[in-house]
Amino acid sequence: MLRKGIVLSVLAVAAVALAPRSTYAYFEEGDKEVTLSGSGANGNDFDGVIIGANGSFGYFLTDNLEVALRQSIQYTDIGSVGSALNGSTRVALDFHFDLEALQPFVGGNFGYVYGDAVNDTFEAAPEAGVKWFVNSTTFIFAMAEYQFFFDSADNADNAFQDGQFVYTLGIGFRF
Asked: What is the pLDDT of residue 66?
């Protein structure tokens, strides 16, 4: 009986320690954030590589509404394609839902995609993601967006169909 009580006590303490706390996670008007993420890929023969880095700076206009500037850069070196350097610069507007340590968000971005292996063009993208605070200033985030390109704008259907999905996983800091 004593052993069962100790186990229950340990579980209760662990549950309290791991439970989200309101001091851990929320944004307020005037808060700023910086995010960093990276990506990499290669074929199964290791005959090429794709490496990317992303960063952003965000400012909260209200407790829930953030405007952000995002920069992405990607280096590709794949067999017959050769090497290429591509990037994108975007401005985003996201609405955050305050669920304590969990901060889902939805929004959109508009920007420019450029580089050696892409047609330089404007893009727009709906996006959604989630931020999970691990302490009061640091969070892990995941985001997905679908960029559609304006270089195919002679036909609105082509502009949307010629787009690309972009997935991001990274770390962020609130200050």
From this structure: 98
Beta bridge partners of 48: 78
What's the whole-number mean pLDDT along residues 95-117? Answer: 94
Bridge partners of residue 80, in order along the sequence: none
Strands of 61-101, DSSP E: 65-78, 82-96
Structural domains in the chain, CATH included, are: 2-174 (2.40.160.20)
3-state class of 119 per DSSP? coil
Q: How far is CA 81 from the centre of its chain?
A: 28
Mean pLDDT (the chain, rounded): 83
What is residue 137's three-state secondary structure?
Answer: coil
Question: What string of DSSP letters covers 14-69?
Answer: HHHHHS--TTTS---TT-EEEEEEEEEE--TT--EEEEEEEEEEEEESSSSEEEEE
pLDDT tens-digit readout, 150-167: 876 555 555 456 678 888
For the ranges 43-47, 56-60, 97-101, 134-138, the maximum mean pLDDT occurs at: 56-60
